């Protein structure tokens, strides 16, 4: 048996319903052609048809029924595969969104921790400056007087 090396673009494959519909149209066309050929072959020259063999007709119906059953099984299998693929894609998308949400939440949490640490450091710095100024004025007796030394002026800023 010859090997077929055909690449299939899976992104542009038609859906199962569309394939089944197209297949049914082709099958109907083949059936119509077969029936026309049978009618043409059994027609008498005078325009009247000969009676068809009952066993042949029955066998034809059985074969057609088996073909329809097989086609139905194939269509169901294809639909199940397509449904499973869609379910997997949906789960992948859900997992990607969940991962992105977790990353964003982690970034926000880290930012909040940094802001809290900066605020704590600023409050400590402000408290140290306030304590230093109070101690300085108490030690130098300048209750309401502004500091005049360069060091105190820098600390005041």
Automatic annotation (TrEMBL):
Residues 38-62 are annotated as: Disordered. Keywords: Coiled coil. The lineage of its organism: Eukaryota, Metazoa, Chordata, Craniata, Vertebrata. GO terms for cellular component: cytoplasm. Residues 90-133 form a coiled coil. InterPro entries: CCDC50, CCDC50_N. It comes from the Eukaryota. This is (spotted green pufferfish) hypothetical protein. Pfam families: CCDC50_N (PF15295). Residues 7-126 form the Coiled-coil domain. One of its GO terms (molecular function) is ubiquitin protein ligase binding. It comes from Tetraodon nigroviridis (Spotted green pufferfish).
């Amino acid at each position: 048996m010859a090997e077929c090396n055909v690449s299939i673009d899976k992104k542009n494959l038609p859906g199962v319903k569309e394939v089944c519909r197209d297949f049914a149209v082709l099958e109907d066309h083949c059936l119509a052609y077969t029936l026309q050929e049978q009618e043409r072959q059994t027609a008498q020259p005078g325009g009247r048809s000969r009676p068809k063999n009952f066993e042949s007709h029955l066998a034809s119906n059985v074969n057609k029924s088996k073909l329809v059953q097989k086609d139905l099984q194939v269509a169901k299998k294809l639909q199940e595969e397509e449904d499973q693929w869609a379910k997997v894609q949906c789960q992948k998308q859900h997992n990607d969104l969940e991962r992105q949400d977790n990353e964003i939440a982690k970034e926000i949490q880290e930012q909040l921790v940094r802001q809290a640490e900066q605020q704590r450091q600023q409050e400590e710095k402000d408290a140290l400056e306030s304590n230093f100024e109070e101690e300085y004025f108490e030690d130098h007796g300048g209750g309401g007087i502004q500091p005049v030394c360069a060091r105190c002026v820098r600390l005041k800023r």
